[in-house]
Structures are given as structure tokens and as C-alpha cells.
């Protein structure tokens, strides 16, 4: 099968969507498929590098930090992809590259499968002063875009429920994003843990909490920082791994809370080094309500870190209370669960072992690719003969 994946950003950009695409591409190619990627260039110039086509684009930071848009079709590069004749297009974003995907799909008369990664309701503060109007705009926009797709993949039940609430009528399949977790269990030696801690000047006796991700307003790191500042324990450190538009504000907030001696901002870390930062920590923390997949949660669990995270629908079947971590809603719960996690070494070991096992049982990249491949087969069959869709949708395995 020939598969074209389209996305607004791709390597070397680092975020959950890119990680998802890179892992999917790798596993599909291992299964014998041909895969190419169409994405936006970070400059006003189109070019091709190996099996990735970069289309010239312009930055639109005023709408959202780091966002880009293309106003041109760059027919020369699109024609090369059309001549390649993919069997299906898997779109990963709803903006410029989706428009390009529609053009290619129309020319070739092939289906589009779309993964809905982003809960735009949580980003309305970037484009709408009124939250209610913002949500209505998101619902309308989502329906308009997704009517062009044959099938929609939702990373979680939370996203699937949201789309149904938007009155999206396309078939929706829930497939948790798969991750190549091997690097998160390798080199788990105490000397590696100590090396990171020494480099960051973290005291040996400290329990280290870690957050990994983009530093943006919707990640709600202020809540973690506020709770952290209220805990009366001198042997705690908080490691914040990543960068983003909200970092300067967070650094000021840390100084305001008078905890700058206990909070370390690493800045951007190259992907190959990220596992070492998980392994240097004792507990993963997050208060984000904007996740659709929670890839960093899964990476942390695979690294053997119990998770202490704000309760959210996206974490169903990811964090199980008392099994591989805890979900909190208030400061008192945050404090209580943290004490429970650290008070008994044997209990901590059990949580850690469960975290690693459940991450691998539920979220392997191989299983993810097989499920996505099945959706491609359904989409192609339906597109060639719409009546077949009635048969496919009634198959019991489709609803598993």
C-alpha cells in the first residue's frame, strides 16, 4: 500500500503529533508499505528531502505561537506526489496541509483518513475573546473539515465523544497513539540517574518530580507550581523539561512563589536525551486539561515513573488510581497522593513496575500501526464500493 501522510509540522519539530507520525511511519514501513510525508517548510521555499516534501509557508505567530500557513499549492511538488499515486491519504492537521490533501485526493479519487489530535476548545483564548463563541466556532470548523474524510481516528474516547457532540457524522475509530517505548527502558542505571542530577545540581537526597512537554498556557503548569510551593518538604525538586511561549511567565511565577531554588527549567532537550530525564526523576506530574493523547504520560510510565496528574477524561485507561499512579482534583489530594507514593518504598516499587508494564501492554507502536492499517483498508474498500461500508461497520472487530 502507498500511504501519504500530511501534517503542518514534522521533524525536527518536537511535539506529540510529530512523535505519533514518526512512529506510525516507521511501523508501516516495517510492515512493507511505502510511506511519504507532506508538510510545511519553515521558510518561504519548497523542497524535498528523501521521502518528505516541504511546502513553502509563512509564520502566523499572532494566531498561535509557532503556527505556519501556506497560501499556495506548489503544483510542481504536489504533482510529484500525484504521479506517485498513493492509495490513501492520512491527514494529521486541519489547516493548510489538509487543503493540499483534499486537492491530491480529488485528483486521484482516493480516500482521506484523518486523525483529530487537538482539542481546540482548550485553545480558544488564542482566537476568541468569548469562550462560548469559541466553542461554537470549533464545532462548526470541525464538521466542515471532517466531512471531507472517509474515516476519523480519535486518540481517546474523550476526543470521540467531543466530535460526536460537534455532530460529526463520519465513522470514528478510537485508536490510542502508539509509541516506540524501547528507549525508555534502556540504560536504567543508577549512575545515569546520578549524572543528570549532578549536572542539574539536584541534591542526591531529593525526590524529583518531572514535567515534560511544551511550555504553553494550556498546559496549566501554574497549578503544579502553586501546589508544589505549598508542600512543606525540603527534599523535593521539580524538573521542567521543554520550552515554549509560556516559559518566561512561568519563570517569573516561580520567583514570585519563592521556589526558584527547587525548580529547574532545562529548556529544549533533543529527543534522544529525553529518556534520561525521565529516568533521573521519581514521579511524573501534570495538571494539563488540553491533552488528546498524553504521549509524555505514556513515556513517563514506560520509564517506570508513577504519575500524579490532574483528573481528565483523556487519562482513562492511562493512569489507574493506586495501580500506576493517582489522579487529583484538589491540592489536598495532590499532597495526600504524593505522600502515599513516597512513604512506603515497597509500594513505590509496585507502582513503578505497574507503570512500566501497563504502558507496554496498552501503547506499543506495533499495535497502533496495525489498527491504523485496518482503518486504511476499510477506507479504501468503502471508497471503491460505498455499499461495502455497511458490511465493514457491522463487523464485531471494528467495534473492539
From TrEMBL:
One of its GO terms (molecular function) is hexosyltransferase activity. This is Glycosyltransferase family 4 protein. Belongs to the glycosyltransferase group 1 family. Glycosyltransferase 4 subfamily. It comes from the Bacteria. Residues 14-182 form the Glycosyltransferase subfamily 4-like N-terminal domain. It holds the Pfam family Glycos_transf_1. Keywords: Transferase. InterPro entries: Glyco_trans_1, Glyco_trans_4-like_N, Glycosyltransferase_grp1. Residues 193-357 form the Glycosyl transferase family domain.
Amino acid at each position: 500500500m502507498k500511504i501519504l501522510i500530511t501534517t503542518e509540522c514534522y521533524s525536527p519539530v518536537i511535539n506529540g503529533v510529530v512523535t505519533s507520525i514518526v512512529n506510525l511511519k516507521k511501523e508501516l514501513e516495517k510492515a512493507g508499505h511505502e510511506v511519504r510525508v507532506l508538510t510545511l517548510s519553515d521558510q518561504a521555499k519548497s523542497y524535498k528531502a528523501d521521502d518528505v516534501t516541504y511546502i513553502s509557508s509563512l509564520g502566523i505567530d499572532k494566531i498561535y505561537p509557532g503556527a505556519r500557513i501556506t497560501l499556495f499549492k506548489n503544483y510542481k511538488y504536489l504533482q510529484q506526489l500525484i504521479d506517485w499515486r498513493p492509495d490513501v491519504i492520512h491527514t494529521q492537521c486541519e489547516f493548510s496541509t489538509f487543503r493540499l490533501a483534499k486537492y491530491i485526493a480529488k485528483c486521484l479519487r482516493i480516500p482521506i483518513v484523518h486523525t483529530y489530535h487537538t482539542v481546540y476548545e482548550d485553545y480558544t483564548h488564542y482566537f476568541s475573546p468569548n469562550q462560548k463563541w469559541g466553542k461554537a466556532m470549533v464545532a462548526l470548523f470541525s464538521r466542515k473539515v471532517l466531512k471531507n474524510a472517509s474515516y476519523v481516528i480519535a486518540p481517546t474516547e474523550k476526543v470521540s465523544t467531543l466530535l460526536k457532540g460537534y455532530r460529526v457524522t463520519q465513522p470514528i475509530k478510537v485508536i490510542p497513539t502508539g509509541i516506540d517505548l524501547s528507549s525508555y527502558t534502556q540504560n536504567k542505571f543508577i549512575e545515569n540517574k546520578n549524572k543528570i542530577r549532578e549536572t542539574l545540581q539536584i541534591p542526591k537526597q531529593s525526590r524529583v518530580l518531572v514535567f515534560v512537554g511544551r511550555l504553553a498556557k494550556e498546559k496549566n503548569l501554574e497549578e503544579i507550581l502553586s501546589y508544589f510551593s505549598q508542600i512543606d518538604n525540603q527534599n523535593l525538586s521539580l524538573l521542567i523539561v521543554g520550552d515554549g511561549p509560556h516559559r518566561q511567565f512561568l519563570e517569573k511565577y516561580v520567583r514570585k512563589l519563592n521556589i526558584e531554588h527547587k525548580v529547574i527549567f532545562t529548556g529544549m532537550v533533543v529527543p534522544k536525551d529525553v529518556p534520561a530525564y525521565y529516568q533521573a526523576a521519581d514521579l511524573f506530574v501534570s495538571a494539563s486539561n488540553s491533552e488528546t493523547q498524553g504521549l509524555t504520560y505514556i513515556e513517563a510510565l514506560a520509564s517506570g515513573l508513577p504519575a500524579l496528574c490532574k483528573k481528565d477524561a483523556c487519562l482513562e485507561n492511562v493512569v489507574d488510581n493506586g495501580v500506576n499512579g493517582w489522579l487529583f482534583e484538589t491540592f489536598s489530594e495532590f499532597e495526600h497522593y504524593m505522600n502515599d507514593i513516597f512513604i512506603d518504598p515497597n509500594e513505590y516499587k509496585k507502582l513503578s513496575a505497574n507503570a512500566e508494564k501497563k504502558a507496554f501492554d496498552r501503547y506499543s507502536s506495533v499495535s497502533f500501526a496495525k489498527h491504523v492499517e485496518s482503518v486504511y483498508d476499510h477506507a479504501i474498500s468503502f471508497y471503491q464500493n460505498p455499499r461495502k461500508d455497511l458490511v465493514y461497520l457491522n463487523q464485531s472487530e471494528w467495534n473492539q
